[in-house]
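haha ok so turns out i had the wrong file open the whole time. this is the CORRECT one, sorry everyone. sequence first:
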Amino acid sequence: MMPLTPSQTVLITGASSGIGLELAQDYLREGWQVIACGRDEHKLSALGADVLSGAMLLAFDVGQRHEVHQAAAKVAEYLTKEQCQLNLAIFNAGNCEYIDAAKAFDDVLFERVIHTNLVAMGYCLGAFLPLMSKGARLGLMSSSAIYLPFPRAEAYGASKAGVQYLAASLALDLVHDEIGVSVICPGFVATPLTAKNDFAMPMQVDVKTASREIRLGLQRGQREIHFPKRFTYLLKLLSFLPAALWQRLMTPNKTKPQKDVSQ
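then structure:
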């Protein structure tokens, strides 16, 4: 795939590892100007020397509003200096943590995940959206977890469902600004984040596949980019099951304690 014009510029958050890193690499290979953003300055700098040569590297925490707006000021200067426009922004940075005991609900964990995955995306929109040109496109990273409720995913699923609604609403309100919006809903992708999961991840794909699907979907202007299709379509199909049936399927049976008959 090649960019539509020789001077396309893309901004990617979470570009120091996983899907974000692969996206940055692939867009560079296609001749895009890449603004690669990550939280870890040392990690991002090392990648800049070894992998992302030629990209603008920005180290900041998307969860800190003042840092996001400071980064946006630097992007504005860069766009003016390079005489280019911001054609594409992919807000990919995020986190995943699970609530292991719902009865003892971890409200601190819940707040942390919602802040990183949803509130921080609002910071990025407030800072970078005004810099985007007509005909540009936003890519917001959600998850295939939005299609069905899963155990332990109260925080993660709620944050990604929020992203999905955010993208759908933005798509309506940005029509007159001629800015398209895509929500990205991957299944399981092999990244450092998913490597922490302690459960089976069916139909997992690698980051190269994820990057290809995302870039193609964005180029086509798809409102919803989901993959791998055999997994996401299965989830969509299962979502039509009655809620009570899905709950029985997904809730593990607890072994009932046996009565003590020794007395």
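The helical segments are 18-29, 41-50, 65-82, 107-128, 154-173, 207-220, 229-238, 243-250.
again sry for the mixup
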